[in-house]
Design the sequence.
């Protein structure tokens, strides 16, 4: 076995109704304008979306949406999220869902402050800056909330790759 050191800056808030405090937690890190990334409409049907957006409003945080994130996230949806984030002037990304939403949010956060194609980060370019990332996990299966990687599929090239360069620059809240 190889020796290594591990440090994980993730802050985890666990418990009943913790999602109703997300706006407060985000405000602590200076969030003012957030792109909410999520998959299906189930979070709206269940009331989770309303609870979260109420918390954002109570804390003076503006928001916009990027929905329909697929399982096994795709680059075209990441590009769409980057476009929305840039147009909106987002300073943060909030993922609501499972690992695919969070992987997409990680790529969107890095790509929103990058002048070339975000795919570069999956082929060796190092991330030097990114928007803050926050998440409300609805399915903790992939462990994406506890690591620095993000898997995205490039539909054009059929490449499915993971970027491990996000760790030093993204704040996982």
Sequence:
């Amino acid at each position: 076995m190889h020796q290594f050191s591990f440090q994980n800056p993730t802050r985890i808030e666990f418990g009943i109704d913790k999602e109703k405090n997300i706006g407060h937690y985000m405000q602590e890190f200076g969030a003012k304008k957030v792109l909410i990334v999520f998959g299906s409409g189930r979070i709206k049907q269940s009331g989770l979306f309303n609870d979260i957006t109420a918390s954002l409003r109570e804390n003076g945080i503006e928001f916009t949406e990027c929905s329909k994130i697929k399982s096994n996230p795709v680059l075209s949806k990441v590009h769409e999220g980057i476009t929305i984030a840039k147009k909106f002037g987002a300073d943060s990304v909030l993922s609501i869902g499972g690992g695919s939403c969070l992987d997409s949010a990680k790529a969107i956060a890095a790509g929103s402050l990058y002048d070339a194609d975000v795919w570069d980060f999956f082929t060796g370019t190092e991330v030097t800056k990114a928007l803050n990332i926050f998440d409300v996990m609805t399915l903790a299966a992939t462990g994406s909330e506890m690591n620095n990687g993000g898997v995205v599929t490039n539909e054009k090239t059929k490449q499915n790759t993971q970027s491990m360069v996000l760790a030093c620059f993204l704040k996982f809240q």
